[in-house]
Amino acid sequence: MIKNGIKNYIKNFKYFFTPLGAIALGVVFGLSLGIPIVVDALKSLLDMIVKISENTTIRLQDLIEAIWTKAESLDWEKPITALQTLLDKDWLTQTINGCIDSIAIDITQLEIYIGECVNQISAAFVLFIMFIVFGFIGGYFLTKWLVRREIARRALWKYFLISFIDSLLSATLVAGCLWLLTLWKASIFISTLVSLIMFGFIELFEAYIAHAWKKVSIKKIINFKNISGLFCSNLLIFIIAAVMLSIVIAITNVLVGIFVGIALMEIAFIVIGLNAESYVKSVAASEIKDIAVEKLND
């Protein structure tokens, strides 16, 4: 079980660039739609400044450079915080005001127009982030489809059947743990351990239904050895991915680490989710082969 899981993870490194490519595509679409919105917003603001003060020497390039310089000065070692600041309307307003302050003009006359400009720029940033999220989601499902095709292919009707069983069993398990927690707060430690064991049981049971029903004895699939082996296998895959991610961050920086880590962790979680199916499918195939050999010998 453990050997099979590690092998699946390493084997599927060949799909490393699939989620990254999907995210990169989202970045390209986000920039192609967001940049024109930002430029038009700043250009409209600049036209209004020129209209109010004909002697101004401010240029569109000045506004763009002011925002870009401020954005560069943010602490990108903490990318989440930096993005939150970049999307903050107050920060954008102060940045634009700082650029306009360099000319002799009453900013109060431009408050409405600055507000409109900031709203449009914020909308462009949100649009950009949305396309990255779409790329991330699309890349995940594409990668999962490729990995499943590699290690645990199954028919469409089985997909819907197992999804229904998974939802039913998982919801029951979660509800049971929450109910136990309301009775005894200390049960969180027990319920966590039980949940880990039960999730292993659920994954093996679902895999048995999908790939080994009436082919292999259920006792051969669902037993303590396989449940504990599945847990150890999944834990090792997660540790390997985390160590590799830590090495990448140490060698490069947080931003590169996050970008590379997306692929490492996506493949890890996908393989973890399919390990039980991969194992059961191999056991079923081996059982069928053994039966066929016995019949030939007879």
Number of strands: 0
Given as residue ranges, the uncertain stretches (5+ residues, pLDDT < 50) are none
Number of helices: 11
Beta fraction: under 5%
Distance between termini?
Answer: 32 Å
- Largest sheet entry: none
Q: What string, H for helix and E for strand, traces the elements in order?
A: HHHHHHHHHHH
Give the helix proportion (percent range): over 70%
Shape: elongated
Radius of gyration: 28 Å
Category by helix and strand content? mainly alpha
Average predicted local confidence, pLDDT:
77
Q: Which structural traits does this protein have?
A:
11 helices; single chain; mainly alpha; 298 residues
Summarize the structure in words.
By secondary structure, the chain is mainly α. Helix content is 84%, strand content 0%. It contains eleven helices and no strands. α1 (2-11) packs across α11 (254-297), α5 crosses α6 (111-151) and α6 (111-151) packs parallel to α11. It is elongated. The two termini are 32 Å apart. The model has no long low-confidence stretch (mean pLDDT 77).
